[in-house]
Write a structure and sequence with these properties.
Layout: E1 23-25, H1 27-41, H2 48-64, H3 68-83, H4 91-100, E2 104-106, H5 114-127
Antiparallel strand pairs: 1-2
């Protein structure tokens, strides 16, 4: 099975999505995420920090909800931002700010190294083409 709209994080099982990342959205983080997502969709001007936070919050949201469609949308946004030359920069500081403001909280289900399986799979398949 190739990664696709059914499971864009293959070979990670969809039921394991909530274990992928060390943080998850808090209730206030969900509200902030929806605001950032809305601003992005409406084409409003955003700072690099806001784009960083949108990337982070989007993947936390999509995986916590086991939602492959939203994971694909997150991947599309990342590609689109890169195409617009809005690259990830200072992500560490953006993530620290989300933690400080309690917009993200530790994920008790987090399984270290799980996301690496997907990254290794993608690299292997890119190298074989």
């Amino acid at each position: 099975m190739q990664p696709n709209k059914k499971n864009p994080l293959y070979p990670i099982e969809i039921n394991d999505y909530p274990k992928l990342f060390d943080y998850v959205l808090s209730t206030s983080g969900l509200i902030y995420f929806q605001t950032l997502k809305r601003n992005y969709i409406l084409g409003k001007q955003m700072s690099l920090d806001e784009y960083n936070k949108l990337r982070l919050l989007y993947v936390y949201y999509a995986t916590a909800n086991r939602n492959p469609k939203e994971v694909s949308a997150w991947q599309d946004i990342c590609i689109t931002l890169d195409d617009k030359e809005i690259f990830e920069k200072d992500m560490y500081q953006s993530k620290e700010d989300l933690k400080t403001k309690l917009l993200i909280v530790k994920n008790p289900q987090y399984q270290s190294g799980l996301y690496r399986k997907h990254i290794e799979y993608v690299k292997e398949n890119l190298n074989s083409k």
